[in-house]
């Protein structure tokens, strides 16, 4: 009998454990039955500078609103005045994402958030959320320098700009990029929120909640002060915002010794510069094809074309190639490099600089000529003017044998927004900015999410595999290769090289095609993988090589984000591949070659890269030696602790706890109140019942026979 | 502590201790004094120590009202104007709310 009982209890225990495991594994909790989490969303975050805050902010516990899709003007009236269920969460169709609609919603109290559908259908002819005069306060033109040219008085560079990126919105704005997710939202809207014959829809309604609470407020000065106070006196030290920072990439045709800082003796340098970054309205989205990638590819291809010739027949002057990060945010990278040069904290200083050529936006040439922009104020100085005219002559002669023509704008006009302006702030430097536009930008989607491959007119024939697309030479690639050849030849002439070697300098369209594919279509391709270190190519959540084109937003730098920003890494390793030599060092020697006498860490950097994939699809890592360096791109305002500086960039990005979005059904207010009321009533009733029962306890619970108390 | 069981002299000395203690920037002692000894001072039949207890309770009530008025005014001003005071407001604050001015 005991054994039977034992067996039965064992079986009961087993049953219990199985039942528990079943419920745990199934985990169909109540929360999942209510909320649908939206994972593929991109927020708009808050950025601060010395005087203002821009971007979007939500409440700490998220902003909720009834969904409404804005497809027509009558929808806008419904949301702003006549709809009976405010506040609304607006799903904005692409065509309506413009300044007038957004400002009307900003001023209304009936909008609790906006989700913008990002797609090409219905896209306006132009859309630039940037300002009309980019970086107007931190350029070279001011009341003291070219006052008649300041603030885009003569030429408005970005006339299509609506300034949305620089507005401060009190509600969250998210971007919906994934078509399937947008479909889910639309279905919820159509099932519950659709208006039937013009009458209002009935509860329960589909609602969306957006969380993007930003910690920083007011401006950078306030935010940095509060961070300091928290760290010194507060019980809960928390950083509220971080400065935008990353690295510039530079290299030179003759290796420079980085252990010697300040003026370099007997070095006359021609700087060839371009920018590395872009931005858009949303966080970390910046395809920046025409705005940034065209310049990067041109300069990289020019480096590749120039390098063998500068080794065989070195020109008298050194050529210093540099890629500046953070130029969209008041010239972070170039102001830092100029600051370092002024403080003698860089390998060269401003007296070493002979002249400067900057590559602006050069992608939308469409067979027309390129324009050489110069600064009329500095050209009032005779020496500078003579050098600039010489530069233009050299450029014209370099363009002579090519399919490109160059011209100079015939009227007095300011320089377009460019890093050369920061160098001119520090001294009179003869320089030119090369661009495809004479007056305003040709780029209709400047600094927006739509400045992508299609804007740069990069199209591939159908039915090509990714590897075939990688090497296919599109028209855009060929056009950029011509520009690169022009730039390379002009730089060689500018550095004092001989005319006779010019014909050997030609940009390789295949390299340009590979660069174009990597920077605007897909960064995870076989060529780029072979150039990067082996650990990067391993798959992982934080891998540099996720799918799709790279995004060019500067980000917060290594202190917050881990390793160097992906685009900076790519440019660094591509430059190492194009200008470096393969050495036969082992991995340990490559990490630290200071012991080897044949290698010089002061002149070169050593990179351990994956190497090309051989026929049997394995790659042998190897060590590449190149004179490619990174230099810090943090605004000098943060080094000098002048957070309210008017001269330097003071841009910071706020921190946040969580950013997410979800949709669910909401009931009417009356139903909520009714539920609460019923609950309170049940509570009071149960209290009353308990009181009565306890006061009449002897009466209710006395047993029929009293237990006899036997008294002996 | 049940005041019923204490002799009257001890009640007086307790009331006096609470009254004097409130001057050390402790208005809650005055609040306790008023609430605890209100019944003793005003609602009980007269006994020898009662007039003194009554005066202590009245003076505590006056002090309490002054404190409440000052604190309410300061708290209202601070909550309303902290954002506009900028740097001064931040130095006066112990915890600063995230994300708002």
* Global structural class of chain B: mainly alpha
Q: Roughly how much helix do the residues of chain A carry, as a percent range? A: 25-40%
Give the domain tally of chain A: 2
* The number of domains of chain B: 1
Q: In percent terms, what proportion of residues of chain A is strand?
A: 15-25%
Enumerate how many helices of chain B there are, as a single number: 4
Structural class given helices, strands, pairing of chain A? alpha/beta
Q: What number is the mean pLDDT of chain A?
A: 91
What distance separates the N and C termini of chain A? 43 Å
The sequence of SSEs of chain B as H and E is HHHH
Using CB atoms under 8 Å apart, which protein chain pair has the greatest interface? Answer: A-B, 17 and 11 residues
Overall pLDDT confidence of chain B: 91
Total of helices of chain A: 20
Strand content of chain B: under 5%
* CATH architecture annotation name of the largest domain in chain A: 3-Layer(aba) Sandwich
Q: What general outline of chain A do the C-alpha atoms trace?
A: globular
Name the helicity range of chain B: over 70%
Radius of gyration of chain A, CA atoms, in whole angstroms: 32 Å
Structure description:
Chain B: One of its GO terms (cellular component) is gamma-secretase complex. The complex is a heterodimer of chains A (712) and B (101). By secondary structure, chain A is an alpha/beta fold. Chain A contains 20 helices and 24 strands. In chain A, a hairpin with a 4-residue loop joins strand 3 and strand 4 (53-56). In chain A, helix 8 packs parallel to helix 10 (420-426) and helix 9 packs across helix 12 (475-494). Chain A is globular. Chain B is an all-alpha fold and 101 residues long. Chain B has one domain (3-92). Chain B contains 4 helices and no strands. Chain B has helices spanning 8-21, 27-43, 50-85, 87-92. The relative contact order of chain B is 0.11. Chains A and B meet through helix 6 of A and helix 4 of B.
